[in-house]
Design a protein that fits this description.
Elements: H1 2-16, H2 21-29, H3 37-49, H4 72-87, H5 95-111, H6 122-139, H7 150-162, E1 169-172, E2 178-181, H8 187-204
Antiparallel strand pairs: 1-2
């Protein structure tokens, strides 16, 4: 099976990149001799449909070659790998469902004897399960989107509705008359206009 061969491929890849012996051992041990349940059950179903007996399907053919985890670290990686994969199947990952899933997977690995050769204790398993629950609850936590208060929305709309447009500012000229200058008119443009008027008066002989 391809799933079983990925352990061997991982070991070869680790050696290629000259990873430490401890890491290579964990790669080799992190599945132990666990059963690939899904494909095993599928094989049994197909055997029944073909008129054969389920006993003809060897369980050993659907187990990883091992060895089982030999250290606490290898056992921890095995637990993390199984729990992380199972968490992806949760439809609505509430804290209660996450806790139930974690406990189920830890019990399954423990009852299958996969942790018999490492030094993990029941107390360790309890602490590991608590850590998994906390981590997964943080990953699947959904932030609540609070709506904007209705009073604030109404206040903003009222302020925009009652706002008056800006009017032009009257400005007194040199002779005391009032010129209406819009906010967009610059002083440079005003001076330019006065210069043009002066030139016209000179040409007419009035200045």
């Amino acid at each position: 099976l391809i799933l079983i061969s990925h352990v061997k491929d991982g070991v070869e890849l680790a050696r290629q990149y000259r990873l430490g012996k401890e890491i290579i051992d964990i790669i080799r041990q992190h599945h132990g001799t666990s059963l690939i349940t899904y494909f095993y059950e599928k094989a049994r179903e197909q055997a029944e449909k073909k008129g054969g007996k389920c006993l003809l399907v060897e369980e050993a053919d659907f187990r990883y070659p091992g060895p089982k985890p030999q250290t606490k670290e290898a056992g921890l990686v095995m637990l993390a790998d199984v729990v992380e994969a199972a968490s992806k199947t949760l439809v609505d990952p509430t804290p209660a469902r996450i806790q139930g899933m974690v406990q189920k997977m830890v019990n399954k690995i423990f009852s299958d004897g996969q942790l018999d050769e490492c030094e993990l204790t029941l107390k360790d398993l309890h602490e590991i399960a608590k850590s998994f629950n906390k981590t997964l609850s943080g990953i699947f936590h959904h932030r609540v989107e609070y709506p904007e208060p209705a009073t604030r929305i109404v206040a903003v709309r009222d302020r925009e509705a009652t706002a008056e447009p800006r009017e032009s500012v009257p400005k007194k000229g040199k002779n005391g008359d009032t010129d209406s200058v819009s906010p967009g008119t610059s002083r440079i443009e005003k001076k330019g206009d006065q210069g043009q008027v002066g030139e016209g008066l000179k040409r007419l002989g009035l200045s």
